[in-house]
Amino acid sequence: MARPAKQKLRKRVTDKDRHNGPEGGKVILLNKPFGVVSQFSGEDTTLASLVPIKGVYPAGRLDKDSEGLLLLTDHGKLQHRISHPKMKWQKSYWVQVEGQITDQALLQLHAGVILKDGPAKAISATQIEPPELWPRDPPIRYRATVPDSWINITLGEGRNRQVRRMTAAVGFPTLRLVRHQVGMWEINNISSGKYQTIELSSEQILHLLSE
């Protein structure tokens, strides 16, 4: 008796599987406000209150007490590419520090400082004029007797609270931290609490995955 032909098992393709391949996807540029955690669930104020789009997830994190650009995507491999520490996507921050920043401190940030989890250094660190930003809620505590200054710092990694720990290590505690660029994407004119959606073609996804 002839043996029945083996039936080929067909895998059910889900939306998650579809967006893990080279196909296109979307990236959301969110200007995360102070006090919002970089997740969709929990007891604190979460991303669910800001981004009503289903199937997107944060590509990396931004501390609750930090503001600015947070990327979200529905493409699994792109999410991993952006957020994985070994990939070293550059991230730039506007940082308000306590005290008048010195050239020596900026050189030290660029040369590298020793943190509890190892050495860390900036790709660049420069003093800037105060950027035109939205009001923070709650506002930064103002002290007439203590000056403050702003720097722009770019890192090639993103360890936990790294910028704050680095500025503290050179004697200038961070008062306000705003991330304004991740890789090729900038915050531009996105208001606090708002977002912009970018649709990416399969070719664009492949290019980003190969960088």
Kindly state the mean pLDDT as a whole number?
A: 88
From the N-terminal CA to the C-terminal CA, the straight-line distance is 57 Å
Characterize the biggest β-sheet. 9 strands, mixed
Low-confidence stretches: 1-18
Q: In total, how many domains does the architecture comprise?
A: 2
Shape label: globular
Q: Can you write the helix and strand succession as a string?
A: HEEEHEHEEEEHEEEH
Using the CA coordinates, give the radius of gyration: 21 Å
CATH architecture descriptor of the largest domain? 2-Layer Sandwich
**Proportion of residues in helical segments:** 10-25%
Give the class from helix and strand content and strand pairing.
alpha+beta
Oligomer: single chain
CATH class designation of the largest domain: Alpha Beta
Write the CATH fold name of the largest domain.
Alpha-Beta Plaits
Number of helices: 5
| Beta-strand content estimate | 25-35%
Say which CATH homologous superfamily of the largest domain is assigned. Answer: Pseudouridine synthase I, catalytic domain, N-terminal subdomain
Count of strand segments: 11
Q: How would you describe this structure to a colleague?
A:
The protein is an alpha+beta fold. The protein has 2 domains: 19-85 and 186-211, Pseudouridine synthase I, catalytic domain, N-terminal subdomain (Alpha-Beta Plaits, 2-Layer Sandwich), CATH 3.30.70; 90-182, Alpha-L RNA-binding motif (Alpha-Beta Plaits), CATH 3.30.70.1560. 18% of the residues lie in helices and 29% in strands. The protein is built from 5 helices and 11 strands; from the N terminus they run αβββαβαββββαβββα. The protein has helices spanning 15-18, 76-83, 103-111, 162-169, 202-210; strands at residues 25-32, 57-58, 67-73, 91-98, 113-115, 118-120, 124-128, 148-155, 174-182, 185-186, 195-200. Strands 1, 2, 3, 4, 7, 8, 9, 10 and 11 form a 9-stranded mixed sheet that branches. The chain is globular, with a radius of gyration of 21 Å.
